[in-house]
Each structure stands twice: as structure tokens, then as C-alpha cells.
Amino acid sequence: MQVGTPAVLAVDQGTTNSKALLVDASGRVVAQGAHPLAPIRTPHPGWFEQDPEDLFGATLQAVAAALDAAGPDVEVVGVALTNQRESVVAWHAGTGEPASAVLGWQDARTAEYCGTLAEAGTLVHERTGLRLDPMFSAPKLRWLLDHTAVSRDRGLRAGTIDAYLIARLTGEDATEAGNASRTLLFDLHHLGWDDELLALFGVTEDVLPPVRASDAGFGTTHRHGPLAAGWPVLAVLGDSHAALFAHGISQGAGKVTYGTGSSVMVPLDGPGQLPDGVSTTLAWLRDDPTYAREGNILATGAALEALAGLLRLDDVGALLELAGSASGEAAVSYVPAFSGLGAPHWDRDATGVLVGLGRGTTAGQVARAGLDAVAQQVCDVLDAVPEPLTRLHADGGLSRHGPLMQLQADLAGLPVSASPVGEASALGAARLAWQALGADDAAWGGAGDVRTYEPRRDEAWRKAERDRWRDALARSRGLALGAGSKGPAARRAERIG
Questions:
Q1: pTM for this one?
Q2: How would you classify residue 30: left for phi > 0, otherwise alpha for psi between -120 and 50, otherwise beta?
Q3: N or C: which end of the chain has fewer CB within 10 A?
Q4: Strands (E), 416-470
């Protein structure tokens, strides 16, 4: 009997879709499939929910599409998993059957609750490297404990999406260390759940899955539709961490993943001093930990989708085409603070604004402002990272849009190397899985040739563009409003007073 090409099945469960890639030992994508998720539910302002059954079903559909595309010439030797981070869900132990909705990473329903814990912000930052913010998992886990049966039934678990999918796929009770580091419950230095933080958020350890290293193995698959029984789950990484692993970059370079939101990451040997504007996180845990600086941007792809809808365009592709029609210097600034601002501002009171509109403003200029918002937010994070950078690697769907990548290089003043393949997260998880199998990483070719965009603008242009953006940010945050205005800053001052 002829044996097919050995391949790792790399599953990427994201915010808007699930993807599956079959990747051979050289990093070549043999086949792939994808399936969209149902639209995010927003039952109240600032709430972002998803159906966990839809997440799992879309994952199986993506796997089926990849396996169908590969045909009989591929032999699956293991599974790698990468996932959206910070989102949480509750499920029944043993079966993995969901017991709550998914509270998405964008969800801000716990903003007021986080405000009541403000005095503990320094403790949280020192232990976890993260800001006390509703984007991270612990406040949402607390909300689940208060609003579902988790606290009343010892047969239930609650945690991040990696742990939910592991439970559904294999029946194992485990979460990956990098994902755990995004919860506000994980000690960045001792690499485990922290008793004091658990007590702070009122989350008991018996509710949480045990933490495992990123390549420790997470059981074997049960038969689920296209999934065969007995495939070993070799490696698990959070999506941004997996993209960093895919690039194989070392200190002195960073990467940005353009997705619904964006993640800017810079690898580190150790946590070092903890800057305030950006997070310090565990990138992955193997024999030794690898750390990273990270800035999380709440809306980039989502910002373009919203702007496309506002302009009554069919999709983001149409928006990008329209943006190309704008000539001359940028005239409009767009701050997509739909649920406030993430790194490095961490201002949940900020609101979305369009600045600079005039009677002569064109739809193309407004569309171009969307591209500007994506690149400017990345620069905000880069400016807050204390380590000097010499290059930026880019991945995600928008990394294939040349005008945006050139704008990013110009605004950042750095060369930008853009991956020709958008699925860097799945490739990174596959790369770690192959290493766990003992494959020679020197043979890894990954996504192939990258395209590098060199900065074309001088520092005077960059300063003027950054100043224009900072003015729009100030207006978004209520910091540029006249006396008597009831903008976000004024409301915030009233609450503090």
C-alpha cells in the first residue's frame, strides 16, 4: 500500500473564520481549507459573543475542506493548534460540551469591574506583565462564574479557546502556557497559576485546566467528522505567538499580525523591566521559556470592515481599491476606538472619530484614512517598545496589500518584510509540531520569499503625519475638547472626582 506525503494538520481557529492547513516537513502547504464563523453577536454595547458550537463546527468544516483538497496522497502524522487568545468559554469536563457563550477578546463588558480593582493594577502588572484590562481573560472568567453554572458544578471547566478545543478534540484537560499567560492569572516568572491573582479575581484553580508546555503533547484526537481517531495533538500556540514562531526572528526585529485586531510582538530572552504601555508575555514554553513584548490593537481589520460598511462598499477589498484613488497627502484621520483603545493607550473611554472632514472630502480620502489608522496604530505600539528595532515582519491578510505595507514602512521608518502567505499562525504551529516530531528545522522553507518595503519618506514627513494622528487620538480621548464639553475625559474626571 502506497503511503502518502507526511503532513501536519495545522488548525487555526480565529475570530472570523477557522482555517486548516496540511503542511509537510519543509513548510510547504500541501492543501488548505477554511470556513467562516457566524457574525459576532453584540447583545449590548461593548459585548462581543460567539457560539462555541459554531467555532467547533467551523473547525471541522475547515479540516474537511483541507483533507478533501489533499486527497489520498497525504498522511496526517499529527495535529497542531493555534487559536484566538483571551476569549473565554465554559464547558463540561470530560465531554467538552459548551456551557456558555464565548466571550470574545474584544468584549468590554467587564470595564467597570476592572475599575473596582484599580488598586491591584501594579500587582497584576508585576506578576503577569499585562495591564488590568477587560481584553484579558480573568475579568471575563469572573463574569462567567457569576452568570453561568460554572461556580455551582464541579464538573465544569472554564478557560481560553485552546483549552476548549483540546477538550473537544481529545478529551484532555489542559491549556497551553502561552495562552495561560494572557489570562491575568499566570505568573510570568514562576510559569504557573498564581494563588494571589486567583483570589483577586475569585477564580478557583479547580475550574481552570492544568498548564502544559507548548510542545508537551495534548492527547490524541477522537473521531469527529473528518478527524480520525488517534492523531496526536503535538503542539499548541496562541495565534500571535504562532505567527512569531513562523517567522523565526530573533532580537532586534519585530512582527505585526494584521487581523481583526493586530498584534505587534518583539521576542525577548527574559521578561526584564516591564514597560507600562505594552505587555510582556510568554511567547512559548519549551525546555526554556521565550518571552515577548506585545502591543494589542483592538481594531484594524475590523476598522476597515466598519468603514467599508459606512461607505456602503461590498467588502474590505473594495475599500482598499477606493483608497488607491485618493491623491496627495492624507487629509482625514480615522480613529476606530469602537470599544476604546488598546496598547499603548489603554483608554476604554476613547470613542471613534473622523477628523478633518470638509465639503471637498472624497470617499477615497475617507477610505485612505482607514489604511492610515491601521499603520498609525502599529506605530503607536512600536514607539512604546523600549527595545530598538531594525526590521518589522508582517503577516495576516492585509500584509499582502502593497500600498499599506509601504505606508507602514514610511510611518515606522523601518523596512517591512511582508509574508506572501497570510496564514502565518497555522504555519508557526505546524513548524513547532514538526520540531516536536524531531524534524530538521534547517530544512524549513516556510512561506517562501518575502517582499521587503523600504522607507521612502524622510523624518520631517513622518513627524508631520504622526502629529496629525496624535491630534486625532487626543480628540478621540476627549483630551482636545473645549471647556464645558462632556467628552470621555470629562466624564472620566467626574467619576474620579
A1: 0.85
A2: alpha
A3: N
A4: 416-418, 451-453
